[in-house]
Amino acid sequence: MVHIKLKNVNKIFQPDVQVLNDINLEIKDKEFMVLVGPSGCGKSTCLNIIAGLEYVTDGKVFFDDADVTYLPPKERKVAMVFQSYALYPHMNVRENMGFALKLSKIDKKEINRRVEEAAKLLGISELLDRKPGELSGGQRQRVALGRSIVRNPTVFLFDEPLSNLDAKLRIQMRGEIIKLQRKLQITQVYVTHDQVEAMSMADRISILFEGKFQQIGTPSEVYNKPANKFVAGFIGSPSMNFWDASFNATKIIFGVQEYQLPSELAQKLDDERVEEMILGIRPEHIKITPTAHDNSYEVELTVVEFLGAETIVTFEFPDGISGMISAPGFYESKMGDKSYISFPSEKIHIFNKETEINLIHKY
Ligand SMILES: Nc1ncnc2c1ncn2[C@@H]1O[C@H](COP(=O)(O)OP(=O)(O)O)[C@@H](O)[C@H]1O
Ligand SMILES: [Mg+2]
After folding, report:
1. Interval 12-58: pLDDT, tens
2. How far apart are CA 79 and CA 204, in angstroms?
3. Rounded to an integer, what is the distance from CA 103 to the centroid of its chain?
4. What residues contact residue 96 under an 8 Å CB cut-off, 6+ apart?
5. Whose CA is nearest to atom 25 of ligand 1?
6. Is there an atom of ligand 1 within 6 Å of 42 CB?
7. Domains (ranges, CATH) in the chain?
8. pTM across the whole model
9. Contact at 8 Å (CB) between 195 and 206?
10. Measured in angstroms, how far is the CA atom of residue 40 from the centroid of ligand 2?
11. Closest ligand 1 atom to Cα of 41
12. Cβ-based neighbour number of residue 304 at 10 Å
């Protein structure tokens, strides 16, 4: 049982690189929290602060109600799994998994019991006598997980543990880590730069950028109600379309196009008194048909890519503004064709151009 709290945490590396800027984060007991953000944004630093491998410049870290800000890692009962699994090549799986317990002078029988139990949980019982060199990448990563599990940690920390694996194995291990989470029922913090991994695994996602959490929420919250343009563009693939826009009475003007807003949205924007905005819509939310439909715009298709489950279409409005659509299945068309597109009003996003805050979906 551990509930983790970061309170007003700052981290400044010498001479003056401020990586974390007054961040607050609460991770509930037994929660699977994913920290996501572009490379270099401070995810590992944040995780290391939770682990005790790095200390804050300012602020506090709590495990339940205990202040652990300056407690060394050994005393926090956390286990950490990294991208490189660093197994000892001359030891077999059983010895690798039990090594930390042996160092802590735990009874040999107890070590064997814990190693066998963890091996069973991870489906690697038949590999206990093998050396790391005789294992596949996925099996090695499982041994690294097992090595952490045997220590009965109260918190599990992962730093991009799947980045070394190929795409297929990554998806498989993703599922296994989630299943493991359900069985172990302990608090887990998982760092990744991959938004798909974050979306598929997390109970909640914390999106870190420019020293701040841009949004903390469930996968559905960050996808459907992104707090700002950064989150909107970071979550989802292909990325959300953004167009510079302005507001005129009840309409959004972008390029030479006009978008008629439903009255409640127009009222909301009117109240905001913002002049310059950004109109956003996800590629998968744009409706596309070969012939005109209600409130549709005529566009020219400049690239058509059929991927199997979906067709990615790049288009241009008559004024040259371009965008992307992800249409389900096979959208029969070719480069240079005309098509008709529309934006369902419940799917559009409008951001303040200056602050980039989402004006429609408040966080
Ligand atoms: N020990 C350190 N000394 C100086 N700068 C560091 C140190 N560790 C990390 N940084 C810098 O802090 C920033 C965040 O690093 P990191 O937390 O590793 O990012 P991420 O894990 O999100 O890729 C980077 O700009 C990195 O260069
Ligand atoms: Mg990192």
Report:
1. 998 889 999 999 999 999 999 999 999 999 999 999 999 999 999 99
2. 20
3. 36
4. 87, 88, 132, 143, 147
5. 40
6. yes
7. 4-233 (3.40.50.300), 238-352 (2.40.50.140)
8. 0.93
9. no
10. 7
11. 22
12. 20
